[in-house]
Structures are given as C-alpha cells and as structure tokens.
User: Fold this.
Amino acid sequence: MDSLLLLVIIPQLRLANHHEHNLPIFSKSLILISKNHSFIWFMSVNLDAKDKLLLNALQHNARLSNAALAEKANLSDTPCLRRVKRLQDTGVISGYHAALDRAQVDLSILVYAFIKLSENTATAAHLFEQHVESEDQVISCSVISGSHDYLLEIVAKDLPSYEQFAKHQLGACKVISGIESTIVLKQTFAKRILPIR
Assistant:
C-alpha cells in the first residue's frame, strides 16, 4: 500500500516500573507503521481539568508567572509548578517560543512543497529527513498519504530565493524524484492554539 499500513490503538499502556520512576500512565498508545515500515509511537498522557486550564492559559500567554497560572487553575503555587513540570517532562509542553510575523523578518513567501521520493525505503526516508531538517528554511516536514511522500512548509524572502532553494538545497538531495510547489498567495489566519477541551 502507498499510505499507512497499520494503525493500532492500545488503551491504557502502563510502563514497567512506573511507580519506581514516577513515570506517567499513558491513556493510549498509537503504533503507526509507515510506508517505509518504520515504527512510530504516539503516546498521550491523561490530562485532567486543571492540566487543561494550565495548557490553555500557557498557549494564550506563555510568559504568565507561576502565581498567575496558579490563580487561573485555582491551585496553590507549588502544585501548579509541579503540574507544569510534569507536562514539560512528559512532552505535552514541547517548548516555549516567540511567534514572529514573517513579513516583518523578510520572509514573506510561504510555500507548500509536495515531495516524491525515488524509492520507498527506510534508508531513503532517513536520508531525506536528515537533509531537510538541516535546512532552516524548512519549518515543517510531514509524512503524508496519497501520491506524494512528504509535505514541506518552506519560507523564503521572495520567489527567486525560493527557486534557488528548490534547485540547489532540495535539488542536492539525491533521493528526491519530484517536487510540486504551491505558493501561498495570502494566509488569512494561522492558528497556533490547539483546541484543548
């Protein structure tokens, strides 16, 4: 098959020695077997109402003090700090970043590039992923189903800059057999806040 071969959902995965190492109990585990036969694990942590309040507050303003966060979630300072640390340690919070206006930093061009690899192997996928991860103009890389293998989100100063990038930086990756580029004419909005309920 061209796309994903298997998706398995296992309810309630409890890690070995969970209590000894203070590790979370995962509510479910997704095993994804991709077209290059590599295994990818997705695990989601049990989140209660307080966790969700904290996450929503931090998504709207990651610079909130611990005292302000605690007040929003109706917690005292120490339990609030402990919860945020747990959310960080388990990877629910993957980082804190400043949101920039692309046009203000001279990167007004946004391109979606659909990539086809020359061969459907784990080696080719690894080489491609390593190559594009090293390119700072590639801001996201996703494995997709359908006639293409990957979708890249690429920023550039202008169209000639993107053309040079596609020819030289992407063109240097020997496992790419085809690139289809879609230029974003206007981005009406880009939500950065996930709907956590």
About this structure: The radius of gyration is 21 Å. The longest helix spans residues 77-89. The beta strands are 6-13, 26-33, 39-45, 109-117, 138-143, 150-156, 176-183.
